[in-house]
Structures are given as structure tokens and as C-alpha cells.
Amino acid sequence: MKKTLEKYFSGMKLDYNIVPQTTFGLGGYIRYYLPVKTTEDFVNAIKKTQKHKIPFRVLAGGSNVIFPENFDKLLIHFLPSNDELKTIIENNSILTEANVSLNKLVEISVAKGLEGLESLIDIPGTIGGGIVGNAGAYGQSISDCIDWVEVFDGEGIKKMSNEECLFDYRDSIFKKKNLFVIRAGFKFEKGDKEIIKKRAEDIKIARRLKYKKGLRCPGSFFKNVLIDNISQESLKLIDKDKIINNRLPAGYLLEESGAKGRSCGDIFVSDFHSNVLINKGQGTYTQVKTLAEELKRAVENKFGILLEEEVRYML
Ligand SMILES: Cc1cc2nc3c(=O)[nH]c(=O)nc-3n(C[C@H](O)[C@H](O)[C@H](O)COP(=O)(O)OP(=O)(O)OC[C@H]3O[C@@H](n4cnc5c(N)ncnc54)[C@H](O)[C@@H]3O)c2cc1C
What we know:
Elements: H1 2-8, E1 13-17, E2 29-36, H2 39-51, E3 56-59, E4 65-66, E5 74-78, E6 87-90, E7 93-97, H3 102-111, E8 114-115, H4 127-132, E9 136-137, E10 140-141, E11 146-152, E12 157-161, E13 180-187, E14 189-190, H5 193-210, E15 225-226, H6 232-235, E16 247-248, H7 250-256, E17 263-264, E18 267-269, E19 277-279, H8 285-303, E20 312-313
Parallel strand pairs: 2-5, 3-5, 4-20
Antiparallel strand pairs: 1-2, 6-7, 7-13, 8-14, 9-10, 11-12, 11-13, 15-16, 17-18, 18-19
Bound molecules: flavin-adenine dinucleotide.
Flavin-adenine dinucleotide is lined by residues 23, 57-65, 78, 98, 102, 123-126, 128-130, 132-133, 135-137, 174, 180-181, 211, 217-219, 312.
């Protein structure tokens, strides 16, 4: 594999330390690492993997991923960018490349008085990663403002409508199919600039209290649970006041199941939120998996509810 990869990917690095590129700080050394800066290079790299049948994964902002220590595929890193030139603003629409930081898009929309994504202020990562996981916070999701998404499907580039992306809570078609996000078009409502700014500022303050700078974590670990998916038996066991927007916060279920104080090696449940797992520094994939399984078991035993990971294991 090494010889083939070196032949086709001139910018590839061997044994690259991925730890600083992920917010959870896991993964160690990646055997085959290919950084790409432009959309064109991203597409060309994927094209080559298809042609030569090379197994690969895509990394963007690294804020929602967990790498095993023995990751042995080619890792194509679509390097995040804060370049405003990668965004085009027209009336109430913004077009961006997938590797633009999500926060940049939010900042631009807020500054222009465009309403709809201000609650996503300060969410780490890129537009591409945000679209894959339909990132959101405080009642808004990236999909609320998506007009279309341009993807590379391994053969050609195509434009998908919002409906075709099958967005759902922290979910999209991109989690299930090999479609790579390269660009997106956003449509906003014009709002009151001062009100939008204030809302974004308030949320930023709340978020920074929760996630201290440099905290080694991937955001919320498990997804909140849709009430419609909970059995009548389980519903009897929960405090109905905890339901928000027809979802039961995973943090509540974990808290009630005694998650706080649990740990495995260097990975531990934070003391400020039961749905945030933190890496003390030397955490490993195995430790994360062990603790995650233990937490899932605890919630299932107590409530009969199976939690699902929001984070992505890079297998
Ligand atoms: C402190 C902190 C707070 C957070 N708060 C929130 C929050 O409030 N709400 C929320 O929703 N999330 C939150 N997150 C999680 C994370 O920021 C989001 O999921 C983010 O959108 C991930 O984007 P990324 O660019 O970092 O993707 P990565 O982590 O690099 O990748 C995530 C997945 O997307 C795939 N991917 C990335 N780019 C592409 C592409 N162009 N085409 C196809 N696949 C691609 C990757 O292969 C991987 O499977 C938080 C994370 C942290 C660390």
C-alpha cells in the first residue's frame, strides 16, 4: 500500500501525529496522511482513491471524531480555512466552500443581519463537517438555512437540494453514503441586526462557560433521544419536565444513571455535564469505547433506553 500511495499522492506524509488535529486529542500517529487545501485538490484526491481502490477517510475540523490508534487507511484532511474569499454573499444568500469554518459563516451572517444560524456561534469545525452531522444548538440547525449542497460522489459533482440531504437531528444522508461535501449554498431571512448580534453574543458567553478553552473533548458525546422512540415503560421512568423540543437530553439520562465520576484510564465524564467526556491527555480509543459502553449499559439498565453516539468513530 505504501508504494502505491507514494506514487499517486505526492503531498502525503507518513506517520503523522494526528493528536493536535482533533479536539479530543486522540489517535496517535496516522500511517498515511494527506493534507489538501483546495476543493479541487480534495476532489482530485478522492478521484484517485476511487480509481486505485484505496481505502480512505475524510477529516475536516476534527471536532467530532475519534481515531483508533491503529488507523491504517489513507486520511484525506480537507484543511479548515478562515478565508473570507471562500464565501460569496449575495442579498440574503451565502455560498461557501466546505472547508470554511462554520463559525466564520455564522459570524458573517450575524454581521449582515441574516437570521437563522446565530445560535451556532462558536461551534468548532467546518461547514462540511457541520453538514454531515447537521450541527446545531439552542433550537437551530445548519440544515435550517441550507438551500443546496454540492457533493462529489466519486465520479462527478452534483447539486443536492435540502430535501435530498435527508437532514434530521444530528443526521444526514452524508453519514450513510459516500458523498463528499465540497460546497454549500445558504439562504437566510433578513432580521434585526442588533437582536441577532445580541442573541449570538449571549450564546457565545454560555458556551464558553460550558466549554473552557482547550478542553480536550468532541462536544456532546451521545445524541439526545427522540421521545417518539421511547417505549411507554421507559417514559414512566423519566421526569417529563426534562423534555426539550420533543427530545430527552442524553445528559439527563446519564446524570440519573450515575455517569459523573466514572472514568477509564485518562478518559472521564466531566463534572459539569454528564454528556461530555474529557481526555486528561493520554486517553486512548479503547478507553473511550470502554467508558462509552459502560455508560450506555448504565442508561439501558436504569431506563431501558439505548443511547446512540453523536461522535464519529473513524474506523
Ligand atoms: C467544544 C465543542 C463543542 C461542540 N458543540 C457542538 C454543538 O453545540 N452542536 C453540534 O452539533 N456539535 C457540536 N460539536 C461537535 C462538532 O463541532 C460538530 O459536529 C462539527 O460540525 C464537526 O465538524 P468538523 O469539521 O470538525 O468535522 P470532523 O470532526 O472533522 O468530521 C466529522 C465527520 O464528518 C466527515 N466529514 C467532514 N468533512 C466532510 C466533507 N467535506 N465531506 C464528507 N464528509 C466529511 C468526517 O469524515 C467525519 O465522519 C462540538 C465540538 C466541540 C469540540
